[in-house]
């Protein structure tokens, strides 16, 4: 019987905290949000289904912060792609 220790593999990966920063026109910090240390597979599933708002929300550690971010900053698809590339190293292409 073959076994694979996913816990050991997770421990090997760098799972650093990720903070999304939003700045104002003068460079002042308007808000900071904690995002998931690794890109959640649920976010990918939701995005493929065309549920981009839900995909955005899946990235946040705190659901209340996700809602506040969505209402306050009204992120675009381009914003989501930038976070996927910049934070998680994903291209968004198959």
Main β-sheet, in a few words? 2 strands, antiparallel
Q: What number is the mean pLDDT?
A: 92
Counting helices, strands and paired strands, the structural category is alpha+beta
- Tell me the series of helices and strands, N- to C-terminal: HEEHHHH
The gyration radius over C-alpha positions equals 15 Å
Read across the widest sheet, the strand sequence of neighbours is: 1-2
Q: Could you tell me the strand content as a percent range?
A: 5-15%
Number of helices: 5
Q: What distance separates the N and C termini?
A: 33 Å
Coarse shape:
globular
Characterise this structure.
The structure is a single chain. The chain has 5 helices and 2 strands, in the order αββαααα. It has 94 residues and is of the alpha+beta class. The chain has a domain at 39-88. The chain has a two-stranded antiparallel sheet with strand order 1-2. A hairpin with a 5-residue loop joins strand 1 and strand 2 (29-35). The model has no long low-confidence stretch (mean pLDDT 92).
């Amino acid at each position: 019987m073959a076994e694979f220790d996913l816990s050991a593999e997770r421990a090997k990966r760098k799972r650093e905290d990720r903070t999304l920063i939003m700045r104002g026109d003068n460079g002042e910090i308007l808000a900071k949000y904690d995002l998931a240390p690794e890109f959640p597979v649920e976010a990918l599933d939701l995005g493929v289904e065309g549920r981009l708002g839900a995909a955005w929300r899946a990235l946040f550690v705190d659901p209340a912060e996700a809602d506040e971010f969505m209402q306050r900053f009204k992120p675009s698809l381009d914003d989501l792609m930038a976070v996927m590339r910049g934070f998680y190293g994903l291209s968004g292409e198959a």
